[in-house]
Amino acid sequence: MKKQLSNSKSTDVVVVGSIAFDTLETPFGKISKALGGSASYFSLSAGNFCKPHVVGIVGSDFPDTDFTILKKGNADTGSIEKAAGKTFHWQGKYHFDLNTRDTIKTELGVFANFKPVLNVNLKNAEYIFLGNIHPSLQLSVLKQIKKPKLVGLDTMNLWIETALPDLKKVISLIDIFIINDSEARQLSKEHNIYKAAKIILKMMGHNKNSVLVIKRGEYGLLLFKKTEVFHLPGLPIEDVIDPTGAGDSFAGGFFGYLALKRNANTQTLRKACLYGTAMASLCVENFGTKKLQNVNKNKIESRIKLLQKLVKI
User: Fold this and answer.
1) How far apart are CA 256 and CA 246, in angstroms?
2) What is the dihedral of CA 165, 167, 173, 177, to 10 degrees?
3) How many C-beta atoms surround the C-beta of residue 284 within 10 A?
């Protein structure tokens, strides 16, 4: 079992998202049908700070070894449904700069019929993260939660293009929204990132403490609240092998740290940015989830020290 950064009792976090096989190629090599998916990366990252309860679906071809990887990462896999059929499979190839990639194949398998159902205990969870799945499914999860304390959200350009009405409904109900800069521009229809942030925060307008994190890849991130802006530069990484899952790893570290501290004040949010960035930087140094499977407290804290040299928190 993974040793967490705190000896205090683990905070439960429900994460709903995809669990997949990834086949991918970068200029530095390739892997075939390795453990992937938004929920997998999130839970392996967040498990260093909290107790992730993974809600997802896999096919009959999903091996016990991959369940073991998730469990060793501190995840509860009891809410992962195993259905007859094939596990969601994505295949892609990255260009030399690693900022662009080509999707070669997407096979949804059993994920096409995924309808997340929470058990009685998970319905009482206070911390919920809605991974990158169709907004209608995210809404169905929120309807099952009784009294959430903090709800986080991820999305992608596909849902902005094809499911905008449902996506806007979800955005109006959540507390933490994590997206990248191109998605922020697409969603807001505004090129300037600061103007885009104001528009998106208005979409999240149900409370004054709404938090928007806009990821900017190697250039770091911007965190916005209605009266605050925080910039964290990117951590210089020499050995970027595979960027797959970096965003989900960031979300796991960021949201997991907030759950660990059980608050989302200004200081904690800024520290959460550091931990999310640290987890993403570790993720990209090997293929798939390999690096996240071997992360420990010392490796994480060494990255935090490097980030603290760049910015004072």
Assistant:
1) 15
2) -150
3) 19
Contact between residue 177 and residue 205 where contact means Cβ atoms under 8 Å apart: no
Whether 269 contacts 298, CB under 8 Å:
no
With H, G, I as helix, E, B as strand and everything else as coil, classify residue 280.
helix
pTM: 0.94
Please name the residues in contact with 264: beta carbons below 8 A apart, sequence gap of 6 or more: 150, 175, 176, 209, 211, 258
Q: What is the largest CA-CA distance in the chain?
A: 51
Query: What token pair was written down for 200?
Result: 């998106």
- Write down the pLDDT at residue 273: 97
What are the C-alpha distances in Å from 149 to residues 6, 13, 134, 142, 176?
Answer: 21, 11, 22, 12, 11
Give dist(CA 195, CA 155) in Å, integer.
20
Q: What is the CA radius of gyration of the chain?
A: 18
Structure-block tokens of residue 6: 């705190």
Q: Cα–Cα distance between 243 and 26 in angstroms, integer?
A: 9
Dihedral sign, CA of 13, 303, 270, 202?
negative
DSSP 98: S
Beta carbons of 31 and 24 less than 8 angstroms apart: yes
The Cα 100–Cα 26 span in angstroms is 11
Q: List, for residues 77-129, the tens digit of each pLDDT value.
A: 999 999 999 999 999 999 988 878 889 999 999 999 999 999 999 999 999 99
Closest C-alpha to 27, from 99, 90, 105, 98: 98
Q: Which of helix, strand or coil describes residue 272?
A: helix
Spatial separation of the C-alpha atoms in residues 181 and 106, rounded to whole Å: 24
Count of Cβ atoms closer than 10 Å to residue 148 Cβ: 17
